[in-house]
């Protein structure tokens, strides 16, 4: 049975009922008081009602069941009742201090937009297995409380992440509320219910290992997500992203027949340990970027070198294969960076195009963050464009393919 969390809306309802009762009694008295003139009775009723003014429509709208008071949450936690608590602040703040038992969820801007579209499940933004199991076990049967640093129901100062997650949970049938006052106010009154941690392990909480994966799945690492020794039909051949640019995996890079079939003579290997099988063959030119699919890796430092390598293949009218181990994270990141800079499109446009070509793309969030920073650097170089969203005009001779034929896997 769900613990009951009382909010100020309960008081509001009682207050309104009391006012309605008072007004009804006034109407009854004025109606039965035949000695007073109609004008006097009406004036007396209005003057009396001014002492019990109803809240304005804005106040009634703002004071809703979407908020839970910090006193109620504190009382429930002290009684040992089970509540699912989601901390929607930056991970650094969560590590510093948080409500005991809470799960940290932090969404970058791109993921916020995808969650809005319904293309991402909330479970996908919780990487830690214990936290994910806890969420799956409780979100349908217990109250869900979300909080940021200082959300209140008085000024609707809720963060986009908190508001979006609450609405998503409510749409899915959960009983979700926002903690009034956020963590800042809760900590003042219930410091004993808060805790901090000294851990710096990025894999413990939140989105750190999250991959942008299929709608039905949860992001995993490349090695876990794809078994190179047991390829799917689509992984047996590279995917054409541009007429000269192909995206693939380690198996594709070792298939000489496929490489020759598509005129691929340039191979960009975005792994530290997958061998360059045809390195001794003078027909092929290699560039190896020794980056692992881990949070600590800085792939963006190699963007200029990778982009120049791909452009060299284009200038020589040769095909170029960009690959990593499974072809879903590192190689996708490099491909998106190339499209953004050379095709003059935003990260959203580049990612959507690559995903249309290869639906199982899943760059990890560290690389995604580097792409966001790369997008900002491109914006700085093109300062005449909007700082909120840039949509450059593509060169007439080099455009991102928009037809299904240009995006389908090479066969």
Automatic annotation (TrEMBL):
Q: Name one GO cellular component term.
A: cytosol
Q: Where does the Tyrosine specific protein phosphatases domain start and stop, copy by copy?
A: 300-361
Citing just one GO molecular function, the answer is:
MAP kinase tyrosine/serine/threonine phosphatase activity
Ranges of residues in domain Rhodanese: 79-195
Which Gene3D superfamilies does the entry link to? Protein tyrosine phosphatase superfamily, Rhodanese-like domain
Transmembrane residue ranges = none
- Tell me which family the UniProt entry assigns to this protein: Belongs to the protein-tyrosine phosphatase family. Non-receptor class dual specificity subfamily.
Q: Per its record, how is this protein called by name?
A: protein-tyrosine-phosphatase
Provide the species name: Mytilus galloprovincialis
